[in-house]
Design brief:
Elements lengths: L1 H6 L7 H27 L13 H7 L18 H13 L12 H9 L2 H10 L14 H14 L14 H4 L2
């Protein structure tokens, strides 16, 4: 009979053994989970999206939405041709969206008849499908030079605007 009693007996015989068994029952799975997470997290990745984990990619994703750019006035002025090539050529070379083609005297004639100030105002504030050019990468004077460049290529005889002279008291400082 004693043999039947031994078959149903537990391996835990003291309270100390019970406490250790409970502690290990919690610690062993937690330790195994920590090791698995560490192993999966330290794996080097390759393939599509692997570069998304780099510090540079993370910095690019969390950068501020807006930025302030300060443009200093001064320096050499761009010529009308330079401004035309940088800003105007996309539409005025092909005549897109009703823009008068560069060098087309028939298209520029009625516009030139309105005068330089009307042309400049249209360029700076926008007209029709053309957006306002004022306040962009080029100064109003440089936009004026581009207007004269395009109008003169279309048969006008406009004089290129000059930079305003510095005030006398500013020059003496």
């Amino acid at each position: 009979m004693s043999q039947a009693h031994d078959e149903h007996e537990t391996p835990i015989k003291t309270p100390k053994q019970l406490i250790l068994a409970v502690i290990f029952a919690f610690l062993v799975p937690i330790f195994a989970i920590v090791l698995l997470v560490k192993n999966v997290g330290s794996d080097t990745r390759s393939g599509a999206g692997a570069d998304a984990l780099s510090e540079e990619a993370t910095a690019a994703r969390i950068q501020p939405i807006g930025a302030v750019t300060i443009k200093l006035e001064g320096g050499p002025l761009k010529s009308g041709e330079e401004v035309f090539k940088g800003q105007c050529t996309a539409c005025h070379t092909a005549g897109l969206a009703g823009a008068p083609k560069f060098g087309d005297a028939a298209a520029w004639g009625p516009r030139v008849g309105q005068g330089y100030e009307a042309l400049l105002t249209s360029a700076l504030k926008g007209k029709g499908a053309m957006g306002a050019q004022g306040g962009g990468d080029f100064s109003d004077l440089e936009i004026g030079r581009a207007v004269v460049y395009m109008a003169n290529a279309g048969g006008a005889k406009l004089e290129e605007p000059k930079a305003a002279a510095a005030p006398a008291d500013a020059a003496s400082k």
